[in-house]
């Protein structure tokens, strides 16, 4: 089979490798849809601890496909069954995993991060992931592309639960990449009144308006524009969907009384300490939090929204490349072209 393997910083190679053999309790997935995440892009640009010349890593963690083979002891799955994969699992029971938050356990494992992942014709799903319920059946009317996009959308669902966005809320989303537009979709589904999307790239704002014509887009003086739009009150919900340190204190400043601020985009380690006005948090009774990844419950809930047609994800895809062109696809994303880029696989 062919696979895109990361050897180190800016060293991603599409090459032949053996098809994995599923062991006891494991599933071999024939990949039919995969999408590229900002995490994949960062790993490619900066290197990754679990990828080296001695042990190259097949990256990618947003995936769907069909069951090719099952290992001994696997029940409930059959060859050809259409499935998508929640990529994070926990190796041992813990307080967090018992509470349903195994994805937050420091010892969590993930496809494409710790183990070979999505950017390959076949992917071995570890026994623990199978046992813990990470393999979800998908309906025939849900495309493999959409099913692969359930994973990032479930991360957005996690943020929505923290933000408690509801009918009539004014929502500010900073960052109009694919994740930012997913937050737009989730906020609209939750009944938000006005949704303001900010970005420095007009082409991305234009693509977002094509998806949601009622969206208010801002590229300019965000502070003055938000205050103008809200009559000086600020936004009820603010989500930072970009890796920019300067955005975090601004998000707190632009929050209304009883506002909820969600730091969604992670920051570079050397720029992760930022100043926040504690008095604004105190006197405005702000809730400031962060979210990362998603639980299996949140993945399942997101898949149900897509299956029922309540949430449409196909319009987020602006480019598709064959697996052999993974490096080209990553280069395009690094230049901030389009929204979501997917990979295609041989039938």
Model description:
The protein contains 11 helices and 18 strands. The protein has 347 residues and is an alpha/beta fold. It folds into 2 domains: 2-137 and 313-344, Medium-chain alcohol dehydrogenases, catalytic domain (Quinone Oxidoreductase, Chain A, domain 1, Alpha-Beta Complex), CATH 3.90.180; 156-290, NAD(P)-binding Rossmann-like Domain (Rossmann fold), CATH 3.40.50.720. The strands form 4 sheets. Strands 3, 5, 6, 9, 10, 17 and 18 form a 7-stranded mixed sheet that branches. Strand 1 and strand 2 (11-16) form a beta hairpin. The longest helix has 20 residues, at 144-163. The two termini are 13 Å apart. The model has no long low-confidence stretch (mean pLDDT 97).
The gross shape turns out to be globular
Give the distance, in angstroms, between the N- and C-terminal Cα atoms. 13 Å
CATH topology name of the largest domain, in short, is Quinone Oxidoreductase, Chain A, domain 1
pLDDT under 50 segments (min length 5)? Answer: none
CATH class categorisation of the largest domain: Alpha Beta
Tell me about the largest β-sheet.
7 strands, mixed
Q: Can you lay out the helices and strands and say which pair or pack?
A:
Elements: E1 2-8, E2 11-16, E3 27-35, H1 38-46, E4 57-58, E5 62-70, E6 82-85, E7 88-89, H2 95-98, E8 109-110, E9 122-125, H3 127-131, E10 135-137, H4 144-163, E11 170-174, H5 178-189, E12 194-198, H6 202-211, E13 216-218, H7 222-229, E14 235-240, H8 247-253, E15 255-263, H9 278-283, E16 287-290, H10 296-307, E17 317-322, H11 326-334, E18 340-344
Parallel strand pairs: 11-12, 11-14, 12-13, 14-15, 15-16, 17-18
Antiparallel strand pairs: 1-2, 1-4, 3-5, 3-9, 3-18, 5-6, 6-10, 7-8
């Amino acid at each position: 089979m062919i696979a895109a393997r990361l050897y180190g910083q800016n060293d991603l190679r599409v090459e032949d490798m053996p098809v994995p053999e599923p062991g006891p309790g494991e599933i071999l997935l024939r990949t039919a849809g995969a999408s590229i995440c900002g995490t994949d892009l960062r790993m490619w640009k900066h290197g990754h601890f679990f990828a080296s010349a001695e042990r190259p890593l097949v990256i990618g963690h947003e995936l769907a496909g069909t069951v090719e083979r099952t290992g001994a002891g696997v029940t409930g799955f059959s060859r050809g069954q259409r499935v998508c994969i929640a990529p994070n699992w926990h190796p041992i029971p813990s307080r967090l995993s018992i509470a349903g938050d195994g994805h937050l356990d420091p010892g969590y494992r993930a496809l494409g991060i710790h183990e070979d992942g999505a950017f390959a014709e076949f992917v071995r799903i570890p026994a623990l992931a199978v046992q813990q319920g990470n393999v979800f059946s998908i309906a025939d009317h849900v495309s493999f592309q959409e099913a692969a996009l359930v994973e990032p959308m479930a991360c957005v669902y996690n943020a929505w639960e923290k933000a408690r966005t509801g009918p009539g809320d004014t929502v500010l989303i900073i960052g109009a990449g694919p994740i930012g537009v997913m937050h737009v979709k989730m906020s609209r589904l939750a009944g938000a009144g006005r949704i303001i999307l900010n970005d420095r790239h007009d082409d991305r704002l234009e693509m977002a308006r094509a998806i949601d014509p009622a969206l208010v887009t801002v590229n300019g003086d965000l502070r003055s524009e938000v205050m103008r739009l809200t009559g000086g009150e600020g936004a009820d919900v603010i989500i930072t969907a970009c890796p920019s340190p300067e955005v975090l204190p601004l998000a707190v400043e632009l929050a209304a009384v009883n506002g909820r601020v969600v730091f969604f985009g992670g920051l570079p380690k050397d720029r992760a300490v930022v100043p926040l006005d504690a008095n604004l948090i105190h006197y405005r009774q702000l809730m400031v939090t962060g979210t990362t990844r998603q639980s299996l419950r949140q993945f399942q809930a997101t898949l149900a929204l897509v299956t029922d047609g309540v949430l449409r994800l196909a319009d987020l895809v602006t480019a598709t490349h064959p697996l052999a062109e993974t490096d080209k696809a990553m280069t395009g994303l690094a230049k901030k072209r389009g929204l979501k880029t997917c990979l295609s696989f041989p039938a």
